[in-house]
Amino acid sequence: MPLTERPQAPHRAWFTGPGFGPVPGTATDATSTRTPGAAATLDTATAAEPVSAPPATRLVCFSYAGGTPSVYRDWPSRLGPGVTVVPVLLPGRGLRLDEAPYTDMAPLARDVTDALLAAGHADDYALFGHSMGALLAYEVACALRERGHPGPRHLFVSGSKAPHLYGGPENAADQGLGDDDLRQLVGDLGALQPDDHVGRSYLERRLPVLRADLTLCARYRWRPRRPLDCPMTAFSAAHDPIAPPAHVEAWRAYTSASLLHRRVPGGHFYLNGPARLPLLRELRAELTRTAEERNPSWIC
Predict the structure, then answer these.
(1) N or C of the chain: less Cβ packing under 10 Å?
(2) 131, 178, 137, 167: which is closest to 155 by C-alpha?
(3) Residue of 131, 158, 160, 236 marked catalytic
(4) Cβ atoms within 10 A of the Cβ of 22, count?
């Protein structure tokens, strides 16, 4: 069956995973509510949030190649009640392990956009993506605009070069890597320590989806479009060979608003360690700003 004809998963399948439940006030939250930003399981109801509680901004999160929503497991508690974390679960992992992963960006961005709209997640929202996830977040923002929907309040991109820099020789080389080469690539990027036997066992199960994701990145070709009109923040790690600062800075051309370029310590997978804390502080500060703080009324 061609990829464009793949069966459509229900929209709730895109937003469920270990440690995460339905987002309050959406189509996936038909039977329970919870305090914004707090993780919940699908079968556990909690007390309804107070009527006076301000609405929480949704932060829709996309993982890196081969990644799962578990990387965002502690984000709800760290970002606080003003932010509702919405991790996206892609096919081929977690509860969707039996589904074939995508190997082309266009149908993936289309189907994620369909799911976001069906779930009611595309109002007062921001997007975050790391590495391949940053590329997907950008394409989803473009797709929502093309359909006439409001853009994100903010786009956060991390560990990713700008879209027009994808598709080069380094991406093409990644597409054909065998299992041993994939293991070496992950090790070279610092995702696994030599004595991390649990992580290596986990990687073995992730090799097929990692290969599919790298194929998607290798096939991607940016389609020229006008810049987004939302503010952006781009994060580059000091020792990331995949997304050096100059390539991250190139995101500046993708917004007609402001772009902040934040540099953080660590390597490509800094998101999995303590080096992610500066990023989380930045996310919380930006997403909990009031409308008056974002757009002061005294500015003419």
Answers:
(1) C
(2) 137
(3) 131
(4) 22
Fold of 8-37+52-167+226-268+284-290: Rossmann fold (3.40.50)
Higher pLDDT, 142 or 176: 142
Listed residue (91, 125, 31) closest to 213, CA to CA: 91
Place of tokens 């229900």: 10
pLDDT, the chain, mean: 81
Average pLDDT over residues 94-108: 94
Contact 236, 248 (CB under 8 A): yes
Residue in this structure with the two tokens 């969707």, named with its chain if needed: 96
Task: Give pTM, 2 decimals.
Answer: 0.82
**pLDDT at residue 185, rounded to an integer:** 74
Contact status, residue 194 vs residue 183, Cβ threshold 8 Å: no
pLDDT at 205 over 90: no
Verify whether residue 160 is a known catalytic residue.
Answer: no
- The burial of 56, by beta-carbon neighbours within 10 Å (0-12 exposed, 13-18 middle, 19 or more buried), is given as buried
Report pLDDT for 290: 61
Q: Given pLDDT bands bounded at 50, 70 and 90, which one contains residue 201?
A: low
Q: How far is CA 152 from CA 15, 113, 198, 228, in A?
A: 18, 12, 37, 9
Tell me the chain's radius of gyration from C-alpha atoms: 19
> What average pLDDT does range 263-291 have in this prediction?
90
Closest of 71, 59, 91 to residue 19, by C-alpha: 71
